[in-house]
Amino acid sequence: MTTQAGRRRLPRRSLEETRALMLEAATKLVCAGTADTSEAAVSAALAHVRVKQVTEEATRIIRDRLGDTAAPAVTTGSIYQIWPAQADFQAELLFHLTSRQAELVPDLPDSIRRFQEAVEKGITWQEALNDVLTDNHRNHRVDPIYRVMLGFYASAANPRVRESLGHYGESFTKVACEAYQALLDTYRLRMRAPYRVDHLATSIASLLDGFHMRWIAGYGELADPHGDENWTLATRVAVMLFDQFTEPVPADGAS
Predict the structure, then answer these.
(1) Model pTM?
(2) Which residues of 136-164 are buried (b: 16+ CB within 10 A; e: fewer)?
(3) 125-145: per-residue pLDDT in tens?
């Protein structure tokens, strides 16, 4: 048999490739839903995600990547080899989204590098902390996945949702602790007893979550009270909180 002239035979996708493609397509659909102003948008964040919609989005993604509008479509049959039921797919999508959101912004290596460069330039720890927290605050204010994450809290009574949110909180706190410990070490600071660095990370994250939500909701009075365009009320308060949790390491090394 001969194939139709000019038609390329495309390699079959593995189940793992299909899994990654479906999660990417579903993520795009969920993020697009954050701009929906209809009444349906106030329902659970993932309730509207249907496998058929995701396969259509996955097909668009793969055809764009290949530059071939005739590339074979992703079928629902291939999806059910991975997730027997739509609820199984939505459960994994929930973990996928929370795992992505647990990544630090700026990331850990970049934060550490910026702390080291700041101390070498004689920049105070307050300014160094403001620098990275400003990036974090700006990112969360516009990140569609963060807005989707906020919607999960309304369904936190569901065991799967609670488990996913717990996974997100634990993962984020772990990497945030590493970043704050790097700042402490770089500027020769330490936690005040009886507080630990995880108390600091949890407190600042909770504080910033509140400011992120207030900015998203359009509340006013969030600018820096000192009038400095490089600061915000959020970062001013976060730095004050950091200062209360920490103290300089004694020059003689005393405990």
Answers:
(1) 0.80
(2) bbeebbebebbbbbebbeebeeeeebeeb
(3) 999 999 999 999 999 999 999
